[in-house]
Amino acid sequence: MKLHTFLLVFVLATSSLNLTAQSTEINHLEIGLNQNKTGNYADALRNFSLEIEKSAANPNPIAFYNRGFAKYNLKDFQGAILDFNKALELKPSYFEAYVARGQSYSKQDNHPLAIQDYNEAIRLNPLEGTAYLSRGISKYKLENFRGAITDFNKSLELIPDYAPTLAVRADSKSKLGDFAGSIEDYNKAIEITPKRTNYLSGRAFAKMKLADYKGALADFSEVLKLSPEKADEWYYSGLCKAYLENYRGENGEKGALEDFNKALELDPEKIEAVYGRGFVKAKLGDQRAAMEDFTKAIEFGNNENAKILYTAKLGKIQLDELRNGLVDRTKMSDMSAGRAEVFFHRGLAKTKSGDPKSAIEDYNRAISFQPSYAAAYFQRGIAKSSLGDQRNAIQDCNNAIELNGKFADAYFVRGIIKLALNDPTGCLDLSKAGELGYSPAYNVIRDYCN
């Protein structure tokens, strides 16, 4: 069974440092803290960025910590780590930041580094139950199940009856073959949180290992009432019914055959369900159909491409949509620069009408009249990107950023082009774009950077 990770809510630590602001000024830090508490992370991030900029001469670790918290919740784990680094540079005893940075490393599957941070958090505050839980999860991921259980035990001493800790300890016990102990923990977790499907599934797997197929089936049935879209649970429900020799449903109830069919309806390439269905068909006397399923299962098993993995990052259609959207967002500029503006806006019109090659000529003219024209470099980069010249498109974004270090759109486009070229540093560009206020960057980070 896969470990179901738990989102650990970071502590908004404000008690150890004074929060002061002039009464005549907007208190961006306080506004951001409230927005973090209510889950408005994109707006919170902007307020923390404004606070960081305003307090550059006397940086506040709380602002960096909470901006990292916002980035974490927007799935920008690399950006979060950079902010937690800064918070710890400013305040080395900031144990909450060690926990938070560890959780960010954990999200990137860098569990050795995560454990180092949890160790330091525990050294600074041995009574921090979240640190023990988080360290236990990283140990679990590294298959150190006994070490994980030790940490979960300590966490439960400090935070008793916390259902996520009970559930992950239950899963660790299953990994070590202690199925009775696992069921005991799942029972407690389910009593606290009755409708968590992953808890019910975990208990069902443990029951199956003890050959309690009726008990397991009852749990899987409850899961499927709550989440009927789960292909795995339909498969295991069918498996339990097959063990109980309930091959075909009666009196309106589904049998193993119907469950395997449902699993394959939801996931047509689920090899186990194909095999299971073949087994049931054979038991029901339909040998020809059974052989078809067995053959299909063998073909799936030998086919490395049975699951098509999307590895091309952002495809052409997505890139075109992003480029056009950014062109549409360009506003009318001050015409004080004269002919540069005229060429620039004619270039925009050509880009939008689908003539990027001719648009580049106009952007070139605009740049020749005004060499510091950051927007012209940026739009020329978009046009080059649409023609497939991604390397030079990146260079134009570089030029735009050199001229305007707060050019969020340029960071964004450079980031998505880098991702299209399989350059992981694109995620850092997207993080910067989000930090500068271009919130759609976090949608791309969520889908392509983790």
UniProtKB/TrEMBL annotation:
Record InterPro entries: TPR-like_helical_dom_sf (IPR011990), TPR_rpt (IPR019734), Ycf3 (IPR050498)
Gene3D superfamilies: Tetratricopeptide repeat domain
One Pfam assignment: TPR_1
Lineage start: Bacteria, Pseudomonadati, Bacteroidota, Cytophagia, Cytophagales
SMART domains: TPR
Record SUPFAM superfamilies: TPR-like
Residues in TPR repeats: 61-94, 95-128, 129-162, 163-196, 197-230, 271-304, 340-373
Extent of the signal sequence: 1-21
Name of the featured protein: Tetratricopeptide repeat protein
Keywords: Repeat, Signal, TPR repeat
